[in-house]
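input
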Amino acid sequence: MKRHWIEFQNTPPDGPMTFWVHRPVDTRHWYQAKVFDPPRQSVVPARGYPVFKVEIDGFTFVFTSSAEIRACIDTLGKKLLPRTIDLANEVYTWDCKAGPNTHWLARLPKEVKPWKYREKAVGYLHKALDDFEREIG
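output
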C-alpha cells in the first residue's frame, strides 16, 4: 500500500533526517542555529509547519522539508547504499560528533534497504514530492 499526506504543527518540526540534511550556517552548534543550508521548510500561513509523510508497504517515511525528501531519493536511489560511517563523517564538526549508528540511513528497518523495495520507494517518493510541492508551493 502506498499513500502520502501532510500534517501541520505549530512549532518547527525535527524529523529523522533534519540534523543530517540541514547544516547550520550561523553557528557551530546545530541546536542553536537559526539559519541552515539548505533552508528548513518555512511555515505555511494559517496552517503551520508541514510534516510530510509517505507510507510504502507498511513503513512510513517522515520528512520536515522537501530538501529531506530529495536527499532521501538521492541516497536510496543508489544501487549500492553508501556506508553510514562515510555519511556521518560528511557532517562531522568538532563540537558535535554524531556516530554512524545515529544516521537516518542506519535507523531504517532492514525491510526498507533491499534494492527491490528502494527502487519502488524512490519512484513513489518522486510522485509524493511533486504532489507536496503543488499543495504548499
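quick obs: The first strand starts at residue 2 and ends at 9.
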